[in-house]
Amino acid sequence: MDPCEVSWFAALCDDDTSQLGVPGASMPSSWAHCRDIVLAAERGGFDNVLLPSGYALGIDGVAFAGGIAALTERIRLLVAVRCGELWVPQLARQLATLDEMLDGRLTINIISSELPGEQLDGGPRYRRTLETMDALRAFLEGDRVDVDGEFVRLHLEPPRVRTTSGHCPPMYFGGLSEDAREVAAASADVYLMWPDTFDAVAAVVDDMRARADRHGRELRFGYRVHVVVRETEDEARAAAAHLVAGLDDETGARIRARSLDSTSVGVRRQGELRDAADLDGFVEPNLWTGIGRARSGCGAAIVGDPDQVVAKLEAYRTLGIDAFILSGYPHLDECRRVAELVLPRLDHAPLVHAPLVHAPLVHAPMVRAGVRRARH
User: Fold this and answer.
1) Which domains are delineated in the chain?
2) Among 63, 274, 287, 331, which one has the highest count of C-beta atoms within 10 angstroms of its own C-beta?
3) What is the pLDDT along the chain (376 residues), one digit of tens a residue?
4) Are the CB atoms for 144 and 372 separated by under 8 Å?
5) Alpha-carbon span 230 to 222, nearest angstrom
6) For residue 375, with 0-12 CB atoms within 10 Å meaning exposed, 13-18 middle and 19 or more buried, which class applies?
């Protein structure tokens, strides 16, 4: 197998704590705290780091990326952007500028979000996401965009600023609903999944390969999961139990409800995993669902000693997953543990200055609708 990409998670959305749901244990996002996480991830040897995005919680990921860019030398930044919050040409200009500041180390996590205060059903929201992704890709490829879509109506040359490679950085995108899967198959480069049982992950990979093939494309696959690793399995399980020892169900439900994605298909699936878990919260060997009691979104962790954690990740690699986004609580401490105990055992390598070769945009629905490609 080719080397995989291993990323860490910078807790920009007030998602850091020493114990879930315990007053006084949380670590609100700040420039200094999140900066330290990113720099620790670079020192520890991670290939990339996800900068998440939320409106109500935390700090802005695009602004943070501009600040941290000058402090890093090797690690890539996976910058999350929420569709619809910025006019597409201006978003393209910002991202191209970030890529220039990073000397080609930018990757993009597309979030199919509602606007702050907006209520939009999944169907139109994902149609807006697809139109945004296709127009954004065209601009970052240096193409003129001429399109009159349902949400994106543009007749405009690309911004002058270009990415270092001259191409659009890889776009990471996730979602379990039918609409989300079709958007990913049509326009994403890396399809991201949240934790699930091994058989369920295999089924999603097979489904997404078939969907992408119908669009004349190929996808890479990514897996977003928490990690609790210690020298022994008993120590890891004890650390996991401690993480939720002060959590009650009412507090956990209140924390989950704060997220804008709390009713999505993917979040519901994380709830189903918790319901199917044993009394200790494990839904299959080394996959623990306890974190999801107090977190919307990615709600499970690989828990075990270094050999068990690596074995779990290697098993996913046999399915074709080659990009992992790991996290753990507190993020700075667990970053250091994973860097010491797990990374040296994985065959991974950063992909800096090796841009992914994209499928021709002729396969994307927006192009069929009339994006005119004028190279610059």
Assistant:
1) 5-227+321-369 (3.20.20.30)
2) 331
3) 889 999 999 999 998 999 998 888 999 999 999 999 999 999 999 999 999 998 888 999 999 999 999 999 999 999 999 987 889 999 999 999 999 999 999 999 999 988 888 889 999 999 999 999 999 999 999 999 999 999 999 999 999 999 999 999 999 999 999 999 999 999 999 999 999 999 999 999 999 999 999 999 999 999 999 999 999 999 999 999 999 998 887 776 776 676 545 567 878 888 888 888 899 999 999 999 999 887 778 889 999 999 999 999 999 999 999 999 999 999 999 999 999 999 999 999 654 433 333 333 333 333 333 444 443 3
4) yes
5) 24
6) exposed
> Six-digit token pair at 291?
């974190």
CB atoms near residue 245 (< 10 Å): 12
